[in-house]
Amino acid sequence: MNYQNLELEAAVDELRREIRRGRWFKNLLYLLLISYILLLGLTSIGVIDEIDPAERIAMIKLQGAISSETMNSAEILAPAIRKAAKDERVKHLLLQLNSPGGTPAQAERLWQTIRQVKQEYPDKQIIVSIDELCASACYYIASAADEIHATEVSLIGSIGVRMGGFGFVETMKQHGVEQRELTAGKFKALLDPFSPRNPEAEQFLKEHILTTTHNIFIDRVKSGRGDKLSSETELFNGLIWVGQEAKPLGLIDGFHSPQQIADALGVDSIVNYTPKVDLFEQYANQFAASLSTAWKNSLHSAIEM
Questions:
Q1: Burial group, residue 111, by CB count within 10 angstroms (0-12, 13-18, 19+)
Q2: 46: pLDDT strictly greater than 50
Q3: If you average pLDDT over residues 48-73, what whole number do you get?
Q4: What is the DSSP annotation of 129-171?
Q5: Between vectors from CA 92 to CA 89 and to CA 98, what angle results, nearest 5°?
Q6: What is the pTM of this model?
Q7: Which of 40, 141, 43, 44 has its CA nearest to residue 96?
Q8: How far apart are CA 127 and CA 85, in angstroms?
Q9: Which carries the bigger pLDDT value, residue 181 or residue 102?
Q10: If 130 and its partner were Cys, which of 150, 169, 173, 215 is the partner (CB 3.0–4.6 Å)?
Q11: pLDDT digits (tens, 9 = 90+) for 266-281
Q12: In whole angstroms, what is the distance from residue 253 CA to residue 67 CA?
């Protein structure tokens, strides 16, 4: 009997078994990785929800400028608010805001959404938690909530409306550039940066656009905050306050953190319901928004909060 051959065959068999075990382990790793990626994908598009306790507070984040061209648009956030409120597992909603403001139309749509959700689901409170800043259009939205909380040094307010732009009349003269434009309607080109300022047109804009929008803004804040607001005459003049001063003015209710809010409401779990997009789409939207904003700022006067 050739013992060397037997030992060699045994070694080969053992090697084959090791290879099979290695392949099995590698296949298991691949399967786990694919399952994890699939789970993340389904969660991100809302096919399945996060694995969380039955009762929860739904948190929706708004960070950055409020505009139809960003993730902070009513088109994206309003359905998320409604979806969270409709979820039977959600006991209350927490809006985490950090924004310098934005456009009046988007603020109005989100304000109306919050009010409608409060009417449809009266047992579910909508609480706002402010991070560093909630100014202008951001506060417009926040005023619709049941309560507003911030830190003592958060910046809050700026209840006003602005419209800005640039003029290139003298620059064009210096370079020998002549504008040629045809219009039908006396004020059709009233915001044209290449034409001299028109006091009559500017007065119209101030009275019928800025003042009207400002009055609606004030009405929304008063409707949302009610008798919590102080009688401070400068409250609606576009000023901004830190949280410590905003509380006695009635602009906020307290200084509770999101977790403290959850504890006060008797719900342990906070689940993120903020709409998600893939990174490429997010960067593409941000790039498009920056180009659009630059174009508007250079050629047109846009109304902002």
A1: buried
A2: no
A3: 85
A4: EEEEEEETHHHHHHTTSSEEE--TT-EEE----EEE----HHH
A5: 125
A6: 0.77
A7: 141
A8: 12
A9: 102
A10: 150
A11: 998 999 999 986 555 5
A12: 27
